[in-house]
Amino acid sequence: MPRPGELQLTPARRGKPPRHLADLDVDARREAVSELGERPFRADQLSRHYFARFLADPEAMTDIPASARSGLVGELLPPLVSPVRHQDTDGGYTRKTLWQLFDGSFVESVMMRYTASRDRITVCVSSQAGCGMNCPFCATGQQGLTRNMSAAEIVEQVVASARMAGAGELAGGPGRITNVVFMGMGEPLANYNAVLSAVRRFIDPVPAGLGISQRSVTVSTVGLAPAIDRLAEEDLSVTLALSLHAPDDGLRDELVPVNTRWKVGEALDAARRYFDRTGRRVSIEYALIRDINDHEWRADLLGELLTERGRGWVHVNPIPLNPTPGSRWTASDPEVERAFVAALERHGISVTVRDTRGRDIDGACGQLATSPT
């Protein structure tokens, strides 16, 4: 048995994550329950316990016969993610959690309550263990890709966070999850099917899902143009965030290596098509790196590229670069940041500098890199 305060890690296992309720739509859940010898409506009861009450303890599911509880929970609510460590900062309004997956892999998520609106709690989720995009300024990118996560493993990060928020474990008292952003570990559109299934679990009405507004879900990508077009055809209203980081191909090839496959223009064209299809304004994420991509002329070039594709379709989020171990790069000077923003605004571009929540616990953008120590 571990001593108090000692981490208890599960042994690594191989293979796919076990089937979970959150992997299945409503019809598939009822079919799964029928295959287990129970009446289909038990799936609806199980869904309400999980998606509305955030329960996984069979003893608390008193509306299900005791003889059926353990079997249903064991088959459809297997443990997929286990908390290893919580780190709180920002006066308790931000919490980063290190999770161990069923096979011994690790991922991190970040839960943030915004004090200006205490009713807003955002969870930044991971969609892959590690990342294969190899962006040199990102700690996750330098870690490499371990594997894709299942839809249920993604959903479990939010359900577990909802459980913590409801118990008042964030400063400000009990609350509920209102926003989900796919800006944790991994490239979401490189794990397309699982991410799309997780999105549907987030937005499906309770008890089919968590009942989060589509407009409160953001899917980030480094610019996988065909997958952006595919997402545009899903009849969803989620926000697309394009991690651009440079407006010129020469520099972006270095900062975002997938640019050697889909160039700046191709990524922006796909983002514009997403806006045309969905009506949802696209966010352009741009990490400001001192003396690398923060030149005023690059802001002008970015402004030109965006406005030549129209007006009002995009919002730019400059992000002061967050430090990562061993990186030779650092954030832009404040006056350089202000000049970059002003240049964009002269082009009529809407701009908001990203709040760097969780920087001191390595929980801000680009800092997530799992280690159990």
- According to DSSP, the number of beta strands is 12
Report the radius of gyration as a whole number of Å.
Answer: 21 Å
CATH architecture designation of the largest domain: Alpha-Beta Barrel
Strand content: 15-25%
| CATH T-level fold name of the largest domain | TIM Barrel
Biggest β-sheet, characterized? 10 strands, mixed
Number of helices: 11
- Rough shape? elongated
Structural class label: alpha/beta
CATH superfamily of the largest domain: Aldolase class I
Q: Summarize the helix and strand pattern as letters.
A: HHHEEEEEHEHEHEHEHHEHEHE
Unreliable residue stretches = 1-12
Helix content: 25-40%
Which features would summarize this protein structure in a list?
methyltransferase; DNA polymerase, domain 1; 373 residues; 10-stranded mixed beta sheet; 12 strands; 2 domains; TIM Barrel; 32% helix; disulfide bond; elongated; 11 helices; alpha/beta; metal-binding; rSAM_sf
Explain briefly what this protein structure is.
It is found in: Cytoplasm. The protein is of the alpha/beta class and 373 residues long.
Protein architecture, described:
This protein has 373 residues and is an alpha/beta fold. The protein folds into 2 domains: 21-76, DNA polymerase, domain 1, CATH 1.10.150; 81-361, Alpha-Beta Barrel (TIM Barrel), CATH 3.20.20.70. The protein is 32% helix and 18% strand. It has helices at residues 26-35, 41-52, 66-76, 139-143, 151-166, 192-203, 225-232, 249-255, 264-278, 296-307, 334-346, and strands at 81-89, 94-101, 106-113, 121-124, 128-130, 145-148, 179-182, 217-221, 239-243, 282-288, 314-320, 350-351. It has a 10-stranded mixed beta sheet, covered by helices on one side. Strands 5-6 form a two-stranded antiparallel ribbon. α1 (26-35) crosses α2, α5 (151-166) runs parallel beside α6 (192-203) and α7 (225-232) runs parallel beside α9. The longest helix is centred in the middle third of the chain and has 16 residues, at 151-166. It starts with 25 loop residues before the first helix and ends in a 22-residue tail after the last strand. Mean pLDDT is 91; it is low at 1-12.
